[in-house]
Design a protein that fits this description.
It is a single chain. The protein has 539 residues and is α/β, with parallel strands linked by helices. Helices cover 34% and strands 26% of the residues. The chain has a seven-stranded mixed β-sheet with strand order 2-6-5-3-4-9-8, sandwiched between helices. The chain has a seven-stranded antiparallel β-sheet with strand order 20-21-22-23-24-19-25. The longest helix has 18 residues, at 421-438. The chain is globular. The chain binds alpha-D-glucose-1-phosphate-6-vanadate and cobalt (II) ion.
Length: 539
């Protein structure tokens, strides 16, 4: 039954910010996924006695890839797989299962917030025993192995039935099919005050949760409607679909438009939220009110004492460098350390493992804590519901009070998409080159105080990572430039802009950041390089 299949390398299997992410058309090429998985197995080495968690977000090719994975795992001598029923697991649920079962790691088949389907994207996230995605030191080795691969091992058997909960065997390998939701729900019940949130809903509180036809639907239905008693119909788009029903499961003001329109209408519910494809991102909305992810992290940090699991204190906080400084002002006032790391959740893992931080977040709609080693969309939604239940305030009241106390970081991200890769690289190297000469220069009302690449030295493993270029201005304004590491074709330039205001809280963010946006366009010569006069996506 064991088959050894000769193969030749693909040269494009380098992992990005979060695993391997490619067009479905690329991933479905012969031996593509097999090569990549075998390269991971080869990198790990001896797999005997190893157990892994396996699942995916239900997108196109999830079912095919997971069958290949199972047959290859058995052929490579893996001891046991724990698999979400029907091949489904959210990224946070997988991280929880890795830690709880002390497995050797896990695999989530997902391209996260990228669109799915035949013409969309597919991806693989590989996590180690830490519960977090493989650090660069490991993903670099995997990449080297993808370049040298000559064969892969697979069991020549028919597909495994993933629909029934229970244990079965493939050769010597044990396969345990589990309900993907149960243990995740238990974990959430141990963190938050479910009875307070239940009372909130019993008192008539309303919410709309958009699962975007992605993996969180079953989790959200169970938690919000069945357990917490949110009115039936509060959770929408809860069937994970291979093409996400045509939706782009990226929870932001642009792609979660249906939800945003409802939340800004006159009969908006009290609370709105959405998650992304694999359930690690979140968007928080109130009635006619949007909370930026950077502010959400700051509000969460400020209110940790309201949450049962954190009420005795937190170690510290961290943000990706591009995320606004709002959370650091809270940390400072509470005498907590605030770290800035490169973009990508894997950079938080060492800080959590070494008990330097409890909460962390990214501007890209990612928020989480050391309960697991991935960002966690539903966790963030429950955190807000718990704050609301404990304070009796609305989303807007909570955020406004926060701004009055700490100032408001007006913050936006501008994405320039579909740029030729060489041109994007030239734009960045040109900008990097001229950074030193910018220091001290004044552009309209803003004077540059610092301009340098962002370099992170990990305090735990001493690795050093360079990610993005940062320009600081004298009054705390900040512009960060970096290239995306999750795209599946061409390059995306991300420009992150922040401006702090202690007095005006209701300005239009796009307008108040316009001056700085123009400076970013000018300094980086974006139009000259890309031909674009504005960004493609503003969030
Ligand atoms: C983006 C975000 C980053 C996030 C990553 C993975 O990366 O900016 O903050 O960690 O996606 O998110 P990039 O390199 O394209 O900017 V997920 O939801 O795919 O795990
Ligand atoms: Co995601």
């Amino acid at each position: 039954m064991l088959k050894i299949v000769p193969t030749t390398p693909y040269t494009d299997q380098k992992m990005g910010t979060a695993g391997l992410r490619r067009k479905s058309k690329v991933v479905t090429q012969p031996n593509y996924i097999e090569n990549f998985l075998q390269s991971i197995f080869n990198t790990i080495g001896d797999l005997s006695g190893h157990t892994y968690i396996v699942g995916g977000d239900g997108r196109f090719y999830n079912d095919v890839a997971i069958q290949k994975f199972i047959k290859m795992a058995a052929a490579n001598g893996i001891h046991k797989l724990i698999i979400g029923q029907n091949g489904l697991l959210s990224t946070p649920a997988s991280s929880n299962l890795i830690l709880k079962n002390k497995t050797d790691g896990g695999f989530v088949f997902s391209a996260s917030h990228n669109p799915g389907g035949k013409n969309g994207d597919f991806g693989v996230k590989y996590a180690t025993a830490s519960g977090g995605q493989a650090p660069s030191s490991i993903s670099d080795k995997i990449y080297q192995n993808t370049l040298n691969i000559t064969e892969y091992k697979i069991m020549d058997v028919s597909d495994i039935d993933l629909s029934k909960i229970g244990t079965q065997k493939l050769g010597n390998m044990i396969i345990e099919i589990i309900d993907p939701v149960t243990e995740y729900v238990e974990m959430m019940q141990n963190i938050f005050d479910f009875s307070a949130i239940k009372k909130l809903f019993a008192g008539g509180f309303t919410m709309r949760y958009d699962a975007m036809n992605a993996v969180t639907g079953p989790y959200a239905l169970r938690i919000f409607e069945e357990i917490l008693g949110a009115p039936k119909g509060s959770v929408v788009n809860y069937h994970p679909l291979p093409d996400f029903g045509g939706l782009h499961p990226d929870p932001n003001l642009v792609y979660a438009k249906d939800l945003v329109d409802i939340m800004y209408s006159d009969n908006a519910p009290d609370f709105g939220a959405a998650n992304d494809g694999d359930g690690d991102r979140n968007m928080i909305l109130g009635k006619k009110f949007f909370v930026t992810p950077s502010d959400s992290l700051a509000v969460i940090t400020d209110n940790y004492a309201l949450i049962p699991a954190y009420k005795n204190g937190i170690y510290g906080v961290a943000k990706s460098a591009a995320t606004s400084t709002a959370v650091c002002r809270v940390a400072q006032s509470k005498n907590l350390p605030c770290y800035a790391v490169p973009t990508g959740w894997k950079y938080f893992v060492n800080l959590m493992d070494s008990k330097r931080i409890t909460f962390c977040g990214e501007e890209s709609f990612g928020t989480g804590s050391s309960h697991i080693r991935e960002k966690d969309g539903i966790w963030a939604v429950l955190f807000w519901l718990n704050i609301i239940a404990a304070t009796g305030q609305s989303v807007e009241e909570i955020t406004l009070e926060h701004w009055k106390k700490y100032g408001r970081s007006y913050y936006m991200r501008f994405d320039f998409e579909g740029i030729n890769t060489d041109i994007a690289d030239k734009l960045m190297s040109n900008l990097e080159h001229k950074l030193p000469s910018l220091i001290g220069q004044t552009f309209s009302e803003y004077t540059i105080s610092q301009a340098a690449p962002f370099v992170y030295n990990d305090p735990v493993d001493n690795s050093s990572t360079k990610n993005g270029l940062v320009i600081d201005f004298t009054k705390g304004e900040k512009i960060t430039f970096r290239l995306s590491g999750t795209g599946s074709s061409g390059a995306t330039l991300r420009v992150y802009i922040e401006r702090l205001d202690y007095h005006n809280f209701y300005d239009n963010p796009q307008q108040t950041l316009k001056g700085l946006f123009d400076i970013a366009m000018e300094i980086a010569e974006i139009t000259k390089y890309t031909g674009k006069i504005e960004a493609d996506v503003n969030t």
